[in-house]
Design brief:
Blueprint: H1 4-24, E1 41-42, E2 49-50, H2 52-70, H3 72-77, H4 80-114, H5 121-124, E3 127-128, E4 140-141, H6 142-173
């Protein structure tokens, strides 16, 4: 396996994400995920504020990137065909998550226009999807959903890049 420092870094980022999730998560059936997007949190000693969901998505992406680096040797010993299948899978995942991001943005904008929302907290609290739609029992905050859609897209693109880089190294070595 790879360098243990990559594993430690990945676990540290996972703990940061868990901290922000459990520190700011308050389940409300009226608006699933709203507690993670309704406050701005200063990072200790930093000059910027961000929503807990931002810290969570950034931390989860960094966890994923460092964990992939830790597992690099494992991916190098996989056959070229298996790496190709993984690249196709991640490309499909990226395509689906990009579709969701675009669809959610269009849906959100149309709903905001329909209810004549101003760009403030009223706009932030628009829920997606409607209650009962697609089997969802609770309305979900659109910013919460979009951040995770962006995370899925970023993870997919990074996995494609990572696997392509390993393929390029394998071609160069052979």
């Amino acid at each position: 396996m790879g360098n243990k420092y990559y594993l430690l870094a990945s676990l540290a980022f996972l703990l940061i994400a868990a901290y922000f999730f459990f520190a700011y998560w308050h389940f409300t059936p009226e608006n699933f995920g709203y507690s993670l997007v309704s406050v701005e949190v200063p990072y200790k000693g930093a000059f910027f504020y961000a929503k807990p969901i931002t810290y969570i998505t950034v931390s989860l992406f960094l966890f994923y990137a460092f964990f992939l680096k830790f597992m690099e040797e494992f991916f190098k010993v996989l056959s070229k065909q298996i790496r190709f299948v993984l690249i196709v899978f991640f490309f499909l995942f990226a395509l689906l998550s990009l579709h969701e991001l675009i669809w959610q943005s269009i849906y959100w904008s149309a709903k905001a226009i329909a209810i004549n929302a101003s760009v403030d907290s009223e706009f932030d609290s628009i829920t997606f999807p409607p209650v009962g739609h697609l089997g969802n029992r609770y309305p979900t905050n659109i910013i919460y959903v979009n951040r995770f859609g962006l995370l899925y897209f970023g993870i997919s693109i990074y996995a494609i890049y990572f696997l392509h880089k390993i393929d390029a190294i394998a071609r160069k070595e052979s």
